[in-house]
Amino acid sequence: MAFEVLLSDKSKKPEHQAEAANVSFADLGSFDGIKxxxxxCPDAKLTMNSKLFLKDLLKLTGMxxxxxxxxxxxxxPFSHKHKLNEEVYLVLNGNGIMTVDGKDYPLKExxxxxxxxxxxxxxxxxxxxxxxxCIQTKRNSLEGYTMTDAEML
Length: 153
Hints:
By secondary structure, the protein is mostly beta strands. The chain has helices at about 55-60, 145-150; strands spanning about 5, 15-20, 25, 40, 45-50, 50-55, 65-70, 85-100, 105-110, 110-115, 120-140.
């Protein structure tokens, strides 16, 4: 079953959005404002405070990207793994721990981490809270990158 995740009616909205043939744009405001976004998954009866998924907002077709914030000393609501997608976490500020397959990895501003789809993960924040970006993409799908995919004009 596919679960749809939507921006809640109670959520902060992007400050500005635009779309043209080759671009989608949204101004989300400051990273501190991530706290004011709320996503809902009605099928799973799940509300995600301080979370913003960008797939639908930016019409992404090759990845999912989200911003998240966790209050200080918060344990994520569930452990999870993926069927196809690896995830990359980029810590913008704060601190915490990512537990993958039972092992703890300390996180702080500037930490980056890739988790294989099979890795069972759970995120927890530390005493400073945690603001992060998470990027999901299908494992082994990268065919071109940086200069191998660019056309110099």
